[in-house]
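Our preliminary data section would be incomplete without showing what the modeling component actually yields. Below, a chain of 254 amino acids is followed by its predicted structure, encoded as tokens that our downstream tools consume directly.
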Amino acid sequence: MDIVIIGTGNVATVLGRKLKAAGHRIVQVFGRTPIVANELALILEAPYCSSWSQLHKNADFYLVAVSDDVLQNLSDYIDLDNKLVAHTAGAVPIKVLKSISGNYGLFYPLQSLRKDVKDLPTTPIIVEANNTKSLEQLTAIAQSISPLVTELNDAQRLHLHLAAVLVSNFTNHLYALAEEYCIQHNLNFKKLHPLLQETANRIQLYSPAEVQTGPAIRNDTTTLQKHIDLLKDNEPLKHIYEVLSKSIRHFHKV
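Predicted structure:
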């Protein structure tokens, strides 16, 4: 298909590379900053533009990978008649595109994407559309770049998006806090890498609830108190430790 990529960030870059690798033609890249748009256009071997008036009007599919704020006002700038258009935002309803085209939907990559990665990660794609034909087209495009394609409505996707924040964004923040703590105490955070990998491996085989370990689930009050005492001068981390320990004990009815 002939595809226009609207956006130049991490999602636009990775999905653009995946679509190109799958044999689709990227016929244009749109970005508000010419230098950045040109950088992505060179990668995708496509022309670029930075003015809405220059947007290619005859593509088969328009992939909109922009911030939620820009997405909300996109109808002020473009009208694609009945061309297929989809956005990539996990927490924004598809109807935000309703006034842009008669055929619209969602193309949401359920993955943490970074434009600087060399190896493109396996990326589940969530699709939704306002009509059957558009859904079939979006599904076909998604299946060309991913073996994991699922249809979800707005409500289901929002729940999944929240769960994604819990398992990715929140856990990564805990990694950052742990790394900072290690640095403060002259410890090498990389020593924890095998543990992180083992935990990730386990939850692919078992329910996370089945493999929970640690002092909280053991009701090891002595160790819990020792850890809390260590954090007496770090109130933010102490609060997180106490809240999560309480949550573990409550979840497992310890």
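Residues 154-184 form the longest helix (31 residues). The chain has a mean pLDDT of 95. Preliminary results of this kind motivate Aim 1 of the renewal.
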